[in-house]
Amino acid sequence: MQIYWTKINKIVDETSEVKTYHLDCPEGFTWEEGSHTHFALEGFNAGDKPNRSLIRHMSISTLPHEKTIGITTRIREQCSEFKSILRNLEVGKEVAIFKTHSNVPLSREDKNVYLLSSGVGLATFRPLVLDYFKRADNVNRIHSLNVDSSKEFLFTNVFESSPEMKFTSQFVDNRNDYYEEVKNLAADKDGIFYVVGSDDFLKQNIEVLREHGIKPDQIRLDKHEHQLAEFL
């Protein structure tokens, strides 16, 4: 397993609680849309065994052509040891990334694509939308639906409806409105539905989609193959 040590080159406050840590791209490091990586803090591999409290599984919110690895995360006032350390890191500090993989590349099957997310889960979808804007081949259209009770919506400059690009984006601030809209979207019995959020969020979405006739092979989750059976 190759561990890439790299430096934080910029920290962006996306909202009052959400930050994006931009990392230098190490030589030889590549990724595609929908990728996640293991993001680790200094000292995680100092002992005989990796210190798992210093490692998190994170989505990459950028694409390679942006020349930066974006890690977008919510850091609340009351947070874990990992988030507490991360909050105090400054530009120039080193972090590690390894085991990078995409479970959710953009589906190009000449169908409508629906991106369903909660809160900062939208970070996983930012690269898919940018990839679609660069190359719309074999995608009919994309609709993004995000629920965030904070009302501080993320990446609104990217997630902005564009009729000419056949892209629509919707933000709601409560679960009732969100699930009503999911039911409406499920009227498309041939669509592809991506879902990103907590495990409970995934299960609730899958339940609604299945109740409305969407089959498991139409649902995409940011989970490894061996984890899918637990949800689908």
Could you name the key traits of this structure?
single chain; 232 residues; alpha/beta; Elongation Factor Tu (Ef-tu), domain 3; Rossmann fold; 2 domains; five-stranded parallel β-sheet; 5 helices; FNR_nucleotide-bd; Riboflavin_synthase-like_b-brl; FAD-bd_FR_type; oxidoreductase activity
Structural account:
InterPro entries: FAD-bd_FR_type, FNR_nucleotide-bd, Riboflavin_synthase-like_b-brl. This protein is of the alpha/beta class. The protein has two domains: 4-102, Translation factors (Elongation Factor Tu (Ef-tu), domain 3, Beta Barrel), CATH 2.40.30; 111-231, Nucleotide-binding domain of ferredoxin-NADP reductase (FNR) module (Rossmann fold). The protein is built from five helices and eleven strands, in the order βββββαββαββαβαβα. It has helices at 81-87, 122-134, 175-185, 199-211, 225-231, and strands at residues 4-13, 18-23, 35-41, 55-59, 69-74, 94-102, 111-118, 139-147, 167-172, 192-196, 219-221. A six-stranded antiparallel sheet has the order 4-3-6-1-2-5. Strands 9-8-7-10-11 form a five-stranded parallel sheet, sandwiched between helices. α4 (199-211) links the parallel β10 (192-196) and β11. The radius of gyration is 18 Å and the shape is globular. The two termini are 30 Å apart. The relative contact order is 0.15. The model has no long low-confidence stretch (mean pLDDT 95).
Secondary-structure blueprint:
Blueprint: E1 4-13, E2 18-23, E3 35-41, E4 55-59, E5 69-74, H1 81-87, E6 94-102, E7 111-118, H2 122-134, E8 139-147, E9 167-172, H3 175-185, E10 192-196, H4 199-211, E11 219-221, H5 225-231
Parallel strand pairs: 7-8, 7-10, 8-9, 10-11
Antiparallel strand pairs: 1-2, 1-6, 2-5, 3-4, 3-6
